[in-house]
Specification:
It is built from ten helices and 20 strands. The chain has helices spanning 43-46, 55-71, 81-97, 144-164, 185-193, 196-201, 229-237, 254-259, 277-283, 307-325, and strands spanning 18-19, 100-106, 113-120, 128-134, 171-177, 202-208, 219-220, 243-244, 264-268, 335-336, 351-352, 357-358, 371-375, 381-390, 398-408, 419-424, 427-433, 442-447, 455-464, 470-481. The strands form three sheets. An eight-stranded mixed sheet has the order 2-3-5-4-6-9-7-8. The protein starts with 17 loop residues before the first strand and ends with a strand.
């Protein structure tokens, strides 16, 4: 976000078949407990078909931006080597995803450099929804919350849109701006380059600037406007009670769009302003402390980001984009794509090591009589369970879930001797070990939208060392597309 010498804004972003292999064998034990990955979206919003954006993927982009700064003098200021490397990183990812890319040289910028514009093919050219974030930072540090968070949120949303490839009812355009920190110069240059007709094509501009503040708030530009409605609806569904972005007015890249008569909105999590007691009461965090204590400082690194705040912004962008630009013709057939997930109908269509699918009494099934029991032999060996699965394209959500119980005779509290690896296609979703042993079954769930439209193998692989058994017991496997 630009300093306090200019006017209003915040930056925005946009928003992806399967095979499984397991390992098993009988010994004794009770079910396991562990964490699940839950989608922070209310049922009313989920019903409206927005994809879940992986905050882990967004954080991976932040790590890249931080590394770029570290390799280029410690910052990503417009016109610097760090800025150019940041632009090339975003550009390469978008080109690989199929976007039409334009670099626009801002000759009037304080530090002349390029804006990056990416447009997804499809939708009417005279009906554009646009999402933007400034890519530059200040010279004092790597600029991760300000504004790699907006840039990364935008990038991951764009990649998910490309992976899903839904029918779109409007043209979707993304932008990463240069020279915001010197006076909103990159976005001003872009708006001034548009003809009046081209400006009229843009039906809404959404800006995301600083969307991961560690003591964050939930702010929306022009919160009561029609343009802001989808952004507000998502955060309302989480009970967040968002407020007007007073601190950001006139200080980010939505400003010149608004001045040109283009409807605008966006998310922000707060900069140097201090959180009030009432805001802390409803949002958590520390009252009378800055929303971002490292605003425009060298400590604005990846450690200066709240994953929770960032995740809620990224998912809200996806929800807004889907509401604004995605039509109903996506072709999602939906439904359950794993066969015989409870193992009650024999081994078909699973391929399993001998004895893995069993009703042996040493380990109880979660439901019914059969389960997949990998390892539990107390000797060196590997067992697996796999199934080839086809995920339909065009659906709003793809969730793989299974119930896992881990029982072990290992006594260590620090060494993983025996392991279960869960893969979908070439992606490793999780690895569990004897250190995760617990009583009872625990449901494990994963967003697998990245495999939409593909036929892939779901694989559970269990490996055990030479002594002291560990049993990995799996039941009620589902992969639901909807």
């Amino acid at each position: 976000m630009r300093g306090r010498t200019l006017s209003a804004g915040v930056a925005l972003a946009v928003f992806a078949t399967m095979t499984v292999t397991l390992a098993a064998h009988p010994v004794t034990a009770a079910p396991t407990t562990a964490s699940t990955l839950a989608r922070p979206i209310a049922a009313t919003v989920a019903a409206l078909a927005a994809p879940d954006i992986s905050v882990t993927n967004v954080q991976a982009h932040l790590t890249q931006f931080n590394s770029i700064a570290s390799s280029n003098g410690g910052n990503r200021r417009a016109g610097s080597a760090g800025y150019t490397a940041s632009l090339n990183y975003v550009k390469s990812r978008l080109q690989s995803a199929g976007y039409t890319i334009t670099e626009q040289y801002c000759s009037s910028c304080t530090y002349p450099s390029n804006n990056l514009i990416a447009e997804w093919p499809g939708g009417p050219a005279d009906q554009v929804v646009m999402f933007g974030a400034h890519l530059d930072g200040v010279s004092a540090g790597p600029g991760i919350n300000d504004n790699a968070t907006g840039s990364a949120t935008l990038l991951e949303n764009a990649l998910v849109l490309a992976a899903r490839n839904p029918t779109v009812t409007k043209r979707v355009r993304f932008a990463w701006w240069t020279d915001e920190e010197q006076g909103l110069n990159g976005s001003r240059f872009y708006v001034n380059s548009l003809s009046s007709t081209q400006r009229g094509y843009i039906k809404g501009y959404y800006n995301f600037d600083m969307v991961g503040s560690v003591n964050g708030g939930y702010f929306i530009n022009r919160v009561s406007s029609t343009t802001a409605a989808p952004l507000k609806a998502y955060w309302d569904s989480l009970g967040l009670q968002p407020e007007e972005n007073v601190e950001g007015q006139g200080r980010s890249d939505d400003y010149y769009f608004q001045q040109a008569g283009i409807p605008t909105s966006g998310y922000a999590a707060g900069a140097s302003a201090r959180k009030t007691s009432s805001q802390a009461a409803k949002w958590g965090g520390t009252a009378n402390a800055a929303f971002d204590p490292c605003y425009h400082r060298s400590c604005d690194t990846t450690a200066n980001v709240s994953a929770t705040v960032l995740n809620r912004a990224a998912d809200g962008v996806a929800y807004a984009l889907w509401q604004l630009a995605v039509g109903g013709g996506s072709g999602c057939t939906g439904g359950q794509v794993v066969g015989n997930g409870g193992f009650e109908s024999g081994s078909t269509p699973w391929t399993a090591s001998s004895g893995v699918i069993t009703n042996a009494s040493g380990q109880p099934a979660r439901t019914g009589s059969y389960k997949a029991w990998l390892n539990g032999n107390g000797r060196s060996g590997t067992e697996s369970l796999t199934q080839s699965v086809t995920l339909p394209s065009g659906c709003a959500s793809y969730t793989l879930s299974f119930w896992l119980h881990i029982d072990t005779a290992e006594t260590t509290s620090s060494t993983a001797y025996d392991r279960l690896t869960v893969q979908l296609g070439s992606t490793t979703l999780a690895t569990y070990s004897n250190l995760n042993a617990a009583s009872g079954y625990v449901q494990r769930s994963f967003n697998v939208a990245g495999s939409a439209g593909q036929t892939v193998t779901l694989r559970f692989s269990g490996t055990e060392d030479s002594s002291l058994q560990t049993s990995f017991v799996i039941d009620d496997v589902t992969l639901q597309a909807s």
